[in-house]
Write a structure and sequence with these properties.
Blueprint: H1 5-15, H2 32-37, H3 50-63
């Protein structure tokens, strides 16, 4: 959804000076059943791997002094 290096850099630019902390949360499928129950189309996404999340945290840490710890 927004898990590319360019997405992370755009987020950093957007929150510059407006945030003290950024947390990266992996996608989860908990809402899929709610969409189905409401008769709405369900979009299925794949959760990022632990390695991908670590890579995104590294990019975030390199791009900003904002606290990015888990």
């Amino acid at each position: 959804i927004n898990d590319t290096e360019s997405d992370i850099r755009a987020i950093v630019d957007f929150v510059d000076g407006r945030a003290e902390r950024i947390e990266l949360l992996p996608y989860h499928s908990m809402g899929e059943n709610k969409y189905a129950a409401l008769g709405r189309p369900v979009q299925t996404f794949t959760a990022p791997s632990a390695e991908q999340m670590d890579k995104l945290r590294t990019i975030l840490k390199e791009a900003t002094p904002i606290d990015t710890e888990k």
